[in-house]
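Students often ask why inverse folding is considered easier than folding. One informal answer: many sequences map to the same fold, so there is more than one right answer. In these notes we will look at a single instance of the problem. The structure comes first.
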């Protein structure tokens, strides 16, 4: 199910919350579709902004997904969605597991699909993170 901070479209069976924005929202949505075909329910959240981040929505969706969260962003992790979500999750009153997918090496030019895979932020990498959380 795909949700924004204002809307709902989730199911009671969602096991992982995936948060992305921009091009990585596309990665999250592709992973969502693929995972549905494999019988895995995930919820995708588009936070719209990270400042201000809708902390209540992040916590509510994370809790409803068993505390499992994947964030995916197309830049370095410092100061991004992943760190903002990690900060929110650190104050959760429930157990959380968070995988932060981000660019971790010097960026370069190339075809978008190749770069998404190279930097670990493609739909395939989102799926891998989901499966790691569900072990």
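Output (designed amino acids):
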């Amino acid at each position: 199910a795909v949700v924004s901070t204002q809307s709902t479209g989730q199911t009671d069976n969602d096991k992982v919350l995936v948060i992305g924005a921009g091009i990585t929202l596309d990665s999250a949505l592709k992973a969502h579709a693929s995972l549905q075909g494999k019988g895995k329910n995930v919820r995708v959240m588009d936070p719209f902004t990270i400042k201000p981040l809708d902390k209540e929505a992040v916590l509510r969706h994370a809790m409803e997904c068993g505390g499992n969260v994947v964030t995916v962003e197309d830049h370095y992790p410092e100061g991004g969605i992943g760190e903002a979500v990690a900060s929110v999750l650190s104050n959760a009153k429930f157990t959380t597991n968070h995988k932060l997918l981000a660019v971790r090496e010097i960026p370069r030019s190339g075809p978008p699909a190749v770069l998404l895979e190279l930097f670990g932020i493609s739909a395939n990498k989102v799926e891998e993170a989901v499966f790691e959380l569900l072990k």
